[in-house]
Amino acid sequence: MPSYFKWAVFASIAVLSFASFILILVAMSTQKWMTGKILCKTGAELVNATDPELVKFMGEIYYGLFGGGKIRQCGLGGRRSKFTIFPHLVKKLNTALHVAIILFLCMAFSFALVSLAFCIFNIIKVPYRAIKGPAGIALWNVLAGGFAVLGVTSFMAAVKLHNLTERIANFQENVFQFVILEEQYEDSFWLCVASATIHGVNLLLVAISTIHFPKRKTKTEEANVAAEDIMY
Fold first, then answer.
1. Helix, strand, or coil here: 40?
2. pTM confidence score
3. How far apart are CA 27 and CA 19, in angstroms?
4. Is residue 94 a contact partner of residue 102, using CB atoms and an 8 Å limit?
5. pLDDT over 50 at 1, yes or no
6. Which residues of 49-73 are buried (b: 16+ CB within 10 A; e: fewer)?
7. What is the per-residue pLDDT across 134-180, written as a single tens digit (0 to 9) for each?
8. Structural domain tally of the chain?
């Protein structure tokens, strides 16, 4: 029973590690990390717009790690546009922080794959001491979860401390100035949060796999022991 239990735990960790890899990959490939409402401040000030009229100057914006789009409302109807972060827009942002976010997430899904590989090695009992047992699996899950947390917190820092949404909204805007009315984290951001949570669950499963269950002796074993005792 203990061996089957440990096999089931390692298999569960492998499935969760693969799920974490997929979640981060999907999150990085989508453009819905953040959405928000933007106000065309310049247009509203030109016509002295009051509260009911401000609706005509409110647009929307969404973006991810590599691109996004916005709807500009400057009193002339909505105008849609799309943009890419690289190679031009990133120069207007905190370049080091934005690149660090991407690198952190790349490291996170890389270590998630390593954790998956270690689980498979332990399931098939590859005889390498360096990768056998729960210690190696725990190590790689700590690294994967840690880098996922770093990526998420760095993105939050870019949004809150470095006005990421406002900088993106005003990219290549020479005439109009936009201010941010609302910001909301979207599904792609929460996928990375879920990925970090998965590695926390994996660490709990690793701890459970170290539990030693007492072995039950069969009657045959008891009989053999008794016979040997008689002989000696």
1. strand
2. 0.86
3. 12
4. no
5. no
6. beeeeeebbbbbbbbbbbbbebbbb
7. 888 899 999 999 999 999 999 999 999 999 999 999 998 888 999 99
8. 1
